[in-house]
């Protein structure tokens, strides 16, 4: 674990990593919601 502020006060994660994480989370949520909607709609 690096000490706080060790990298000059930059964000904990690189911008690219954050974008990928958000994109992955968005896709995961979309799949989850789609699955729930399918089940609630009577899908087997």
3D structure, described in words:
With 44 residues, the chain is mostly helical. 59% of the residues lie in helices and 0% in strands. The protein is built from one helix and no strands. The protein has one helix at residues 15-40. It is rod-shaped. The N and C termini lie far apart (46 Å). The relative contact order is 0.08. The mean pLDDT is 82.
- Estimated radius of gyration: 18 Å
Note the gap between the termini: 46 Å
Helix content: 55-70%
**Structural class estimated from helices and strands:** mainly alpha
Question: Would you tell me the overall average pLDDT?
Answer: 82
The shape is rod-shaped
Stretches where pLDDT falls below 50 for ≥5 residues? Answer: none
SSE pattern = H
Query: What's the number of extended β-strand segments?
Result: 0
How many helix segments?
1
**β-strand amount:** under 5%
Major beta sheet summary:
none
Transmembrane segments: 20-40
Keywords: Membrane, Transmembrane, Transmembrane helix
Present the secondary structure layout.
Blueprint: H1 15-40
How is this structure best summarized?
Helices cover about 60% and strands about 0% of the residues. With about 45 residues, the protein is mainly alpha-helical.
């Amino acid at each position: 674990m690096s000490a706080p502020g060790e990298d000059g006060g930059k964000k904990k994660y690189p911008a690219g990593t954050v974008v990928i994480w958000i994109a992955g989370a968005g896709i995961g949520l979309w799949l989850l919601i789609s699955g729930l909607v399918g089940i609630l709609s009577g899908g087997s």
